[in-house]
Amino acid sequence: xxxxxxxxxRDPWARAQLPPVAEWPxxxxxxxxxxxxxxxxxxxxxxxxxxxxxxxxVALVVPDGAGGWRELTYAALAAEVDALAHVLTAELGLVPGxxxxxxxxxxxxxxxxxxxxxxAGLVAVTTMPLLRSTxxxxxxxxxxxxxxxxxxxxxxxxxxxxAAQIPVHLWGTDGTEGLEARMARHRRPFSACDxxxxxxxxxxxxSGTTGVPKGCMxxxxxxxxxxxxxxxxxxRLTAADRCIGTPPFAxxxxxxGLLCFPLAARGSTVLLEKATPELLLEAIxxxxxxxxxxxxxxxxxxxxxxxxEPPQFLTASLRTTVSxxxxxxxxTRTLWREVTGIEMLDGIGATELIHIFIAAAGADVRPxxxxxxVPGYEVAxxxxxxxxxxxxxxxxxxVRGPTGCRYLADPxxxxxxxxxxxxxGDAATMDADGYVFFKARTDDLIISAGYNIGxxxxxxxxxxxxxxxxxxxxxxPDEERGQVVKAVVxxxxxxxxxxxxxxxxxxxxxxxxxxxxxPRVVAxxxxxxxxxxxxxxxxxxxxxx
Length: 545
What we know:
- This protein is an alpha/beta fold.
- The chain is built from 16 helices and 25 strands.
């Protein structure tokens, strides 16, 4: 049973919202994950870098507003973070443990805001830029936020949600009461709050692919665990690396890959507010980025752009590319390898465990497999009785390690954590060497006439058809078969919907995978429903069906 260290928080609300310890997963806090009692992750990520002599190294690379790029050193970033931490505590009156909602695009100010909240011992509630007032109101209320920091361009929805119940402080206003003006009055070092390693520092809400988002409560040590795990031991980031990508900081995939990982490695990160596949490719070439993070859909569109105009997009600086957030189709992996020469690094992670816990890189990549457990994590495939299934048998993916699920006052804790395991909601198989093969989300397994059919496998087959740009597969009710497979297709440019094309796609799938898996229903649409992070929302397609 875990025991708590004396908290550095004056506001005890967050710790009081943790689920009972008996409902926690087993935690493995040894080796590189044996953290000291007192730990503030901002100190590890930023202050220690200065003490190690990295003050003049580039930390952030951001657009300069004139078509070029501006660099911010570790020393300059630390000065901004300290100034904002003083504003948060001395001017805004926030005390350690207060929750602060953050709303903004990836960039310098979101980086400064997140790190300053950490350093001041506050709790960050990160939010997607596209959320509307009704959604923001729910998060403000659930996390009992004391204040909000917001990009002035995104203020309207947040101010409506806050309804004068909590103060909303803006950056980018050019006003005397804007955060930048306040920070100018506090140009001196800030002593980090003496937080415990198990003080909550982040409430990350799930992206909503399965409906109502859940608040995942993470400790200062969890932030460092994702850096000391996947980043250090699989990606092997170094100070020579420069990261780039699309996921927002509100998505822990983005928070890790585009802020915490590069800072922990003393490398740098390129931050883009918004990016199309073409703009991301141009930024990679211009900034000489070495590691990219985005979703499979984005890699597919980037690969198609390179194939169409190879001289325009240069990716020679990249050494690895990380895909996560949804299943990586083999067609996308193959396309990316053909046009860049880079083997995609796939991974399974979860907001509940803060980042990726299954992956493989380089020579450890095995065809068809996502990878093996990140060092420090243990992975199993279990049946409904939580017993291991034989190798190659489909079961429930379970994981435990240095991080784990702790929902914010949510009864779903008891279904996600069972018998000490985090049950991720994934259906998978595992071979004798520990390689995991993803089949589907457990609620995306389609049972048709007694056959178990994984939606991602059918999607991957459909997307190999040259007329298909995107595809989502769901099961729909059928009196005779229980369910049948339905493919919802977005066509590539130059192709029009028709019954003949639907039949052609069905025949193509029959030739590509086992014929019983083919989509008996093919529907065409202009766009698929997705979250702000680009993850497919199959539940919306199921609802419409």
